[in-house]
Amino acid sequence: MTQIAMKRKKTRPVFLGGVKVGGNAPVVVQSMTSTDTRNVISTVGQIRMLEDAGCEIVRVAVPDREAAGVLADIKKQITIPLIADIHFHYQLALDAIARGVDGIRINPGNIRKDKMVRIARAAKSRGTVIRLGVNSGSLEKDLLKKYGCPTSQALVESALRNLAVVRDAGFDDIKISVKSSDVLTMVEAYRELSEKTDCPLHLGVTEAGSILNAAIKSSVGMGILLYEGIGDTIRVSVTGDPVSEIGVAYGILRALNVRRVGPDIISCPTCGRCEIDLSGLAREVEEKLKGMKSYLKIALMGCVVNGPGEAAEADVGIAGGRGSGLLFKKGKVIRKVREKDFVESLLREIGTMTVGEKEA
Questions:
Q1: Looking at the predicted structure, is the pLDDT value of residue 3 above 50?
Q2: β-strand 57-61 against 28-32: which pairing, if any?
Q3: What is the DSSP string of 31-45?
Q4: Residue 189 and residue 40 share a domain
């Protein structure tokens, strides 16, 4: 896979299994399961659905030692790197590391510093990456007292002082996140942190809500930062099915030309000239192309008069009219197609264009 040229801050790379994060690597898309980790069948099943959707790193909650005990079983059944999410109990981090996870996320706000040293030493012995996941909802009490609330400065101070703790323990394979549910706080925190460390940064707006709100907040917050060259991995946090996060994440990356992967479907908002069910066509095409890795710009237009011209930059598309439409490529009409054959004809054409292709 290749990276579209842009001015990105070059960070110190780390490796989660076979996935490089930071340095000159593409921005990586990750997610987190919503299953009970102790249920191996359902957790593996959801991870495989995330993999099919394009997820490149997956995180699972580890609330107790029973959950930690099944991590090795989960890992051997999936192909993407596995991260264990740890809160409060440092022993769970040690258990997860011992079972071969690729990375762990620890929350400095709820793990003592001496325990973090033990975690860092164990991670170093096994080649496990640590993410210092600072969160506005669980900031250290002294910082809350100092700043009065979880400000961007408070998030950054927490990240930097805990970074010093693990580095003093001789550990350097570190990612950092400074998430907030407030978009502007999150943006300012990452900007400041990026100036003060070369660690790869994992971007996210935490507790972003249902799919619409999550898409809006994530697009604004992460979009600003990615445009400024900040960020090495991203997660769109959605209340509900985590598989829905992946499409939004890639959509953000495509919109900024950070990565060109998957179908970029453009469709007109419709007007009085539209004589086809364009919204239904768009939904069906999106569903059929879910999980597609090759990049193509696909236009779905509701007017045969202006459609091909308005979508001249699209790789392929349909411009519909009453009962029929035009199949076009790069603005040039290929042939006339009956309305009932729109999807089949478009998919067949896409198939001929994507054989053997990967990310652009």
A1: no
A2: parallel
A3: EE--S-TT-HHHHHH
A4: yes
